[in-house]
Write a structure and sequence with these properties.
The longest helix is centred in the N-terminal third of the chain and has 17 residues. Strand 1, helix 1 and strand 2 form a beta-alpha-beta unit. The protein is 47% helix and 13% strand. The protein is built from 3 helices and 2 strands, in the order E-H-E-H-H. The chain has 78 residues and is α+β, with helices and mostly antiparallel strands. It has a two-stranded parallel sheet with strand order 1-2.
Length: 78
């Protein structure tokens, strides 16, 4: 079976940071050679990864907030 080698995980708020940290632990347990890039908070970073940018930069809830920050988020991703 082919193992996934590169994984990107994005967590835009604290509860998803918790879930992302658990996901990273599971991935590394099953596939220690996987390359993982993250946008996350301190829980995900505690696994030894540096967030590509601050989690608070993309923390949004609801359609209005997403629409108001979409251009900023796109700029950060590029």
């Amino acid at each position: 079976m082919n193992k996934i080698r590169k994984i990107f995980i994005s967590a835009g708020e604290p509860s998803s940071d918790n879930l992302g940290a658990a996901l990273i632990a599971e991935i590394k347990g099953k596939n220690p050679d996987a390359e993982i890039a993250i946008i996350g908070g301190p829980k995900m970073e505690s696994h030894g990864y540096k967030s590509l940018f601050a989690q608070k930069e993309i923390a949004v809830m609801g359609y209005i907030e997403v629409i108001s920050k979409i251009f900023k988020i796109r700029k950060l991703i590029r």
